[in-house]
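Bumping with the actual sequence this time:
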Amino acid sequence: MPARLETDVEILAYLLNVGANISVSLDELQKLEPDEQLRYFLDKQIDLDLTQVRHFLHIFKVNVQAMGDYQPRVYPGKIIFFRAKEKDAYNAKNPERAWIDLTQEGLEVIDVPGNHITMNESPHVQVIAEKLKLYLN
């Protein structure tokens, strides 16, 4: 599991550092009042407004809770695991290890450019799409 992010400020620091590649310390953000933290984030991420950021933080927390509560079962087939080439301080260095005991037919690891967030964005997501096409055909 990646680092558990529970507070708004922890999530904002993660999104800025990993998602936007903007270096900001958690301590620096924690010195700000909650609304100032959101404004700081908005200044760096111009595609959202205050209401959208608050909604996004809520959804992020719900997803983190669901991920923490999930109890996986063994999959009877092979697992294809897309691993981000760029590492960060939040996510496991070898996240594929958590899946090894959950597959009956093995685990194939495919490295993808980007980090845990940016691997799912253009242009990196095209690598995932091309690999998936091979397995879906």
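The tokens above came from a reply further down the thread. The two ends are 31 Å apart (CA to CA).
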